[in-house]
């Protein structure tokens, strides 16, 4: 059954326990448990006879996932997916775990045994079980509370930033970048924190180290096997220290955040290398994760059939190469290279390809990658060129031709499964990626792609009558957009990531309609999720009887937590509206998370970064000018070319009846100096002297 009334009623009526399995479409072990246990006839009979079985996609229902994951982590010390939880008919959890093999082994009890034992307990000790589940629930409520105590104020930004920098610096891998030995995740939140830390400490050794850590990590990731050198985009994480052998699924939220982070790296360093990686990610998303109508799909799976004739899927089959395949595809002799060199020789040398495969057996427990190669850039262009006696420019063209041929060969392979559900929150992250890259790289078509996606969200995942967002929609027959029978209402993260996206899109396009919608959504978010007693926002709204707990997120992980991003959103919203109560709310969130921010800010780098914006107050960068004028465009190019984290950009176009002038009366007093486009830097609605030279504005920023 899906999570819903029908299943709950059945459990109560038949007095049965509920077995809940939570997973997601690109989860490898979810598929394994499905094949081994759920499709096994005898185990299936035990499940149906004794339990009401419910399956949940955690990407559709993060609220249900969070409640029971909190329970599994608290009671077993670990967590993950597939998550297996047994609940009483009134939905209280009493035992849980993750993956279970079907039968008992030396170290693990099998799923069949667990099912039979639990069914037995329910028959024999029902009252004790119910009493115990009530105690567990009370303990969870107490444990998961995040709130401001008494008159707590926001923690001091300087200390929070310094501690977070120190904790990241201590866990940094000097050789390969990243912040753990293995597995290694991209975690853009860490890199964005380091960029902001650098911007505030440019002249200190710590500032220089922060920048070096971030840029080195981004370079190593881009060279690594976690980056798909043939079909673009990034895989979810690396299983080793070197960013080499990944888990091959590709998630939308990674592409969105990484496109923005690589664009920032380009703004700061001016190095085209980073701009190229950002373009590469967006090319992948435009080609493989885009709905014709404008939305973005959620993910591509890691597992696929190696050939059209294969009976079973293998991890990474779509992405890996045998040496002989590459030799056969690239047999051409290379002009000007040492005698007898083929394009295959050059390509294999540069991308670390070995005849016997380049994946260590340690990283391949199921021997799915035996004899195969995951491409990883092993040398600089200069080194590879020197090795074969070529010019670097000539080598670049050769490698590009090699990549083109491998892409054509790969296109003949069976593709991995595409998860075509469209999630509001992840689409928000992706819109930010396109908008920020479009602004930083000065590429208008990227901004237009962001606007198409925002228009898609407004049409398909927003109800103008109630002013509320929906969580998801789906690709139906003939590519039509479909909604589920009972649409899922938007969660906190849907509001937060879309509001952030709309601010980013406004700054890139200066279309005021996006601002107006962002501020509307911010009011709705306050109404649905704000905790007036303990401060901060709950992840889900009140009033759903099937949710035992209303939780607040407390970690910036693969995605930033909604409360972290919302601090900056609130400060931006105040800049565009003059509503100072939003600044107050931002401070109250920081107060609620104060203890965590002071002790372990490394778990909340995005919120730590926001403490600086709160402390320094956002600067309003106002450009007065004609949107079509060349002088205005030059001013805007300057603003977009500088990485300046604590600012809100706005265009005062002189239209007194427009949305911004109605929101911010002070704009009427700012004028164009000598009829030229003029910039003002304002803080708390008090402005600097007018500036008409783009160079001078760049310097001020």
From TrEMBL:
Residues 1-140 form the Spermatogenesis-associated protein 20-like TRX domain. One of its GO terms (biological process) is carbohydrate metabolic process. The lineage of its organism: Eukaryota, Metazoa, Chordata, Craniata, Vertebrata. CDD domains: SSP411 (cd02955). This is Spermatogenesis-associated protein 20. Pfam families: Thioredox_DsbH (PF03190). It comes from the Eukaryota. InterPro entries: 6-hairpin_glycosidase_sf, 6hp_glycosidase-like_sf, Ssp411, Ssp411-like_TRX, Thioredoxin-like_sf. Gene3D superfamilies: 1.50.10.10, Glutaredoxin. It comes from Tauraco erythrolophus (Red-crested turaco).
């Amino acid at each position: 059954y899906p999570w819903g009334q029908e299943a709950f009623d059945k459990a109560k009526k038949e007095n049965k326990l509920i077995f809940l399995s939570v997973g997601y479409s690109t989860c490898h072990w979810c598929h394994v448990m499905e094949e081994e246990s759920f499709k096994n006839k005898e185990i299936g009979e035990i499940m149906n006879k004794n339990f009401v079985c419910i399956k949940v996609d955690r990407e559709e229902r993060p609220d249900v996932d969070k409640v029971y994951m909190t329970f599994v982590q608290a009671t077993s010390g670990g967590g993950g997916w597939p998550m297996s939880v047994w609940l009483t008919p009134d939905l209280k959890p009493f035992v849980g775990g993750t993956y279970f093999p079907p039968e008992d082994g030396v170290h693990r009890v099998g799923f069949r045994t667990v099912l039979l034992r639990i069914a037995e307990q329910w028959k024999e000790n029902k009252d004790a079980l119910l009493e115990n589940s009530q105690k567990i629930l009370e303990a969870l409520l107490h444990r998961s509370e995040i709130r401001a105590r008494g008159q707590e104020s926001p923690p001091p930004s300087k200390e929070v930033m310094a501690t977070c920098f120190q904790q990241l610096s201590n866990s940094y891998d000097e050789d390969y970048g990243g912040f753990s030995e293995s597995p290694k995740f991209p975690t853009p939140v860490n890199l964005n924190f380091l960029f902001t830390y650098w911007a505030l400490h440019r002249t200190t050794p710590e500032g220089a180290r922060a920048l070096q850590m971030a840029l080195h990590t981004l370079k190593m990731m881009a060279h690594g096997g976690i980056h798909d050198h043939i079909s673009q985009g990034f895989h979810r994480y690396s299983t080793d220290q070197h960013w080499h052998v990944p888990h091959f699924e590709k998630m939308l939220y990674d592409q969105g955040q990484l496109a923005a982070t690589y664009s920032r790296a380009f703004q700061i360093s001016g190095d085209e290398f980073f701009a190229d990686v950002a373009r590469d990610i967006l090319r992948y998303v435009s080609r493989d994760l885009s709905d014709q109508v404008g939305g973005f799909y959620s993910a591509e799976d890691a597992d696929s059939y190696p050939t059209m004739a294969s009976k079973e899927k293998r991890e990474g089959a779509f992405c890996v190469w045998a040496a002989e395949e590459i030799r056969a595809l690239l047999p051409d002799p290379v002009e000007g290279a040492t005698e007898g060199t083929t394009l295959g020789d050059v390509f294999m040398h540069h991308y670390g390809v070995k005849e016997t495969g380049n994946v260590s057996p340690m990283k391949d427990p199921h021997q799915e990658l035996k004899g195969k190669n995951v491409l990883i850039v092993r040398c600089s262009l200069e080194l590879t060129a020197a090795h074969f006696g070529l010019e670097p420019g000539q080598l670049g063209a050769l490698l590009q031709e090699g990549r083109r041929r491998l892409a054509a060969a790969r296109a003949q392979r069976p593709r991995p499964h595409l998860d075509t559900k469209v999630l509001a929150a992840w689409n928000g992250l992706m819109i930010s990626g396109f908008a920020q890259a479009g602004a930083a790289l000065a590429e208008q078509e990227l901004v237009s792609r962001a606007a198409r996606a925002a228009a898609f969200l407004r049409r398909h995942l927003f109800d103008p009558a109630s002013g509320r967002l929906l969580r998801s929609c789906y690709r139906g027959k003939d590519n039509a957009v479909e909604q589920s029978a009972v649409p899922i209402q938007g969660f906190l993260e849907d509001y937060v990531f879309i509001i952030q996206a709309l601010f980013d899109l406004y700054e890139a396009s200066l279309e005021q309609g996006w601002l107006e919608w962002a501020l509307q959504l911010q009011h709705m978010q306050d109404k649905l999720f704000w905790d007036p007693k303990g401060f901060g926002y709950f992840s889900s709204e009140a009033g759903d009887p099937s949710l035992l707990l209303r939780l607040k997120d407390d970690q910036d992980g693969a995605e930033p937590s909604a409360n972290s991003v919302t601090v900056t959103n609130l400060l931006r919203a105040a800049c565009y509206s003059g509503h100072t109560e939003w600044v107050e709310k931002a401070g109250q969130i920081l107060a609620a998370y104060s203890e965590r921010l002071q002790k372990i800010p490394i778990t909340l780098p995005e919120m730590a970064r926001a403490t600086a914006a709160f402390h320094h107050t956002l600067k309003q960068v106002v450009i007065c000018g004609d949107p079509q004028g060349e002088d205005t465009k030059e001013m805007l190019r300057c603003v977009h070319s500088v990485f300046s984290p604590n600012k809100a950009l706005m265009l005062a176009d002189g239209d007194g009846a427009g949305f911004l002038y109605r929101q911010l009366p002070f704009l009427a007093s700012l004028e164009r100096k000598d009829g030229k486009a003029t910039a003002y830097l304002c803080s708390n609605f008090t402005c600097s002297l007018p500036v008409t030279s783009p160079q001078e504005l760049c310097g001020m920023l």
